[in-house]
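Feature request disguised as a bug: please show the residue count (442) next to DUF1501 domain-containing protein in the output. Example input:
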Amino acid sequence: MTPHGTSLGRRDFLRVGGIPALGLGMHALPTRSAAGAELAKAPAKAKSCILIWLDGGPSHLESFDPKPNSPREVRGPFGVIGTSVPGIHVSELLPRTAATMQHSTIIRSMTSPLGEHNFGTHYLLTGYKPTPALNYPAMGSVISHLGSRETSIPSHVAVPDLRVGGGKFLAQGYLPANVAPFEVSGDPANKDFRVRDLDPFPGIVDERIDRRAAYLRALNRIDENVQSSSPDDPAFEQAYRLMTSTSGKRAFDLLAESSETRGRYGAKSIGQCCLLARRLVEAGVPFVTVNNRGWDTHNDLVTRLKEGFTGAKQPVGLIPSLDMAYSSLITDLHDRGLLGETLVVVMGEFGRTPKLNTLGGRDHWPRVFSVMMAGGGIGGGQVIGSSDDMGESPHDRPVTPADLAATIYQLLGIDPTTILNTADGRPVKVSLHGTPISELVG
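Example output, currently without the count:
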């Protein structure tokens, strides 16, 4: 009930006023909670991060940590190739990535105890093992929460969305709902690609949008339930700024790219998503997550990884598509002078079993897997850690997801010891158990 004895709340008012008809669904109207932070600064090497999330768990043996001298049931059907860095080899399905290895670092000794999608996803994206006591926020949401940007473009964008870990992952965790990622929703690879909230529905004119925004501000002035420290609804204001912003529309406009550029990235979803991610960091977005599904290869590994689900003659499978997207992204960032300030991370929730199963696939394997990183001030052309001869366990220099999260935070200028506060005032460190990887933050 409001102080005036009516049950008509802010959301009801907006619903009656027609805000959803502008293309701003109610899911885009979260309210701010009383979460704060005690920010500890760290020297920043990177200004932004592009996280390429391979949802389902990519095989390290078919990508960044091949085992050519192991038995066939372990090494799998693909060969290995050299890279631009002598002594570093990757799967033969990654020729373009191999040519840019001087910019990249492979961590081959990642290790986790969590082999279930939702749990593994939570650990990799937050740096915390999941617990029923508290939902921890994704790194992108932490970056958004601690940032001070007030622009027309959201500070945490997911392309096309962040529906990962079986769809159960809550990206903002215990932080305010307004730092949840802005989900583009549409797939940039589709011809009818459209960004949610970028344009109003047909027939809705700018004057009506402005009028609804004025209604909201007027409501805030008379609503005694609104905290004085948060006089506006931040999510609505963000959507309103995006809808009325020329720079926002420009950043999301893939049609501004030449057909040659779009072709280099590849026609598959991951390629066009990475191209959009490049445009977003160029526009100043601090954190972009590219979510690429399909990596849970329990069966038919050869077709799914090399050729794609259709068995097409052209190499359009998961790994060749990643190869085109990643190499083009790294090359473009380098050529535009942005690689040094843009951290790129490629990872999934775990690796795959050393031995092929009877269905010609590999099952979940968190004991050891690989992550690839580039840019953001880290040195390229190196390998950190190693797995054993079978790709079964770390051989040396084990790195945990908590270590990786602490590293990413420090590279982006956030001390891992920074204290965040939950809605009920509970202090929580950004990274509790992680130690930044010295070879990368050095």
